[in-house]
Amino acid sequence: MSRIPIRLRVTLAFTLVSAVVLAALGWFVYVRFESQLNEQIDQGLRTHGDDIAALVANGNLARNSKLLGREESFAQVLTPDAQIYASTPQLGNEPQLTSAEAARASQGSFIVTREQVRSIDGEARLLARPATGPDGGRYVVVAAASLDDRDDSLANLGAILLIGGPVALLLASVAGYLVSGRALSPVEAMRRRAAAISAAEPEQRLPLPQADDEIRRLGETLNQMLGRLEAAIERERAFVDDASHELRTPLAMHKTELELALRYARTPDEMRAAISSAIVEVDRLIQLAEDLLVLARSAEGKLALDLRRVGVAELLADLRERFSARVDAERRSLVIEPADGLTVDGDRLRLEQALTNLVENAIEHGGGEITVRASKGDGEVAIHVEDCGSGFAPDFI
């Protein structure tokens, strides 16, 4: 059942409920119609019985009188011991009640159904009621009516229900299928849009139906999820850009150190110094790779800082040592202004990364002499990296 599409499952459930409702309604209509027909027959029998009782009371009913007869109805007048006093010719000389039934009818009326009555095909309905003659004698009036017309009417109604019920059920099922398809069309629209959304278009969102219903709330929830995915993709792209930027500078300096050692190192000491400098850059690359791994795993996109007291003069001296070979190769000059006595509370590695990126940008995109200076004011220390290039456009700044 779980493999059946939702639309078909809804239609099947609707069809099942409709079948139960139609069956119950058909049964109720059939029983109600049968009850009404029986009531009409019984009412006709009571009227006929009253008429015969009136004839008996007036003494106008002779034995075997034809006044007993009516269309589709026959009658007898019996004594309390079930002897025939008068009868319609169709019923003959055979009493329709037993002695016990005649005695019971002399005390009060009742109605019964008989499967066989003379001259009546099929079932018949019998009314038995007491009557009083002009001389005060007790009699029993028996009126009989055929149930053929009732049975024909019930048969016609049953045929209509048996034919019309399945037709109505089929129409209801088709209507249910169409309505369920209409109700689920927003879901299909969202599915098609979701299938078309790719990483190249993370800003796309699912279409929402006009009605404020469960499907709309589902679409809003999914769009919120898409928003979170878009933010995650943007963070991933930013991480890749940052990683590329962070790795480019140490790799470039490492390459420069090795090229200089290959071209200009003539003594073992010079070669050892070049290798030592290359090892330092390798250590920086390893530390940077570890930091990038921590950054990738960080839920907030930030690294924990190792805050310590850092001497600005030492920081800038290390910066000069790192870029000395690079600026010589670029035929540029790097000037580090004195910063004696200045200290900051910060993460030395992060400060080195920031300054390294600024100097690298000055080498790659600036011009002329590169100056690094530090100044103190208002309880803060500002470190500036300046060059003689064109700089940023005012709108960008």
Short recap of the structure:
By secondary structure, this protein is α+β, with helices and mostly antiparallel strands.
Tell me what you see in this structure:
This protein has 397 residues and is an alpha+beta fold. The protein is built from seven helices and ten strands. Strands 2-1-5-4-3 form a five-stranded antiparallel beta sheet. A three-stranded mixed beta sheet has the order 7-9-10. Strands 6-8 form a two-stranded antiparallel ribbon. The longest helix is centred in the first third of the chain and has 53 residues, at 6-58. The model has no long low-confidence stretch (mean pLDDT 81).
Indicate the topology.
Blueprint: H1 6-58, E1 73-78, E2 84-87, H2 99-107, E3 110-114, E4 124-132, E5 138-146, H3 148-196, H4 214-264, H5 268-297, E6 308-311, H6 312-329, E7 334-336, E8 343-346, H7 348-365, E9 370-377, E10 380-386
Parallel strand pairs: 7-9
Antiparallel strand pairs: 1-2, 1-5, 3-4, 4-5, 6-8, 9-10
Protein traits:
57% helix; 7 helices; 397 residues; 3-stranded mixed β-sheet; alpha+beta; 10 strands; 5-stranded antiparallel β-sheet
Low-confidence stretches: none
As a percent range, the share of helical residues equals 55-70%
Order of helices and strands: HEEHEEEHHHEHEEHEE
Number of helices: 7
Largest sheet: 5 strands, antiparallel
Which whole number gives the mean pLDDT?
81
Structural Rg: 54 Å
The total count of strands amounts to 10
Rough shape?
rod-shaped
The structural class is alpha+beta
Question: Order of strands across the widest beta sheet?
Answer: 2-1-5-4-3
The span between the termini is 64 Å
Note the beta-strand portion: 5-15%
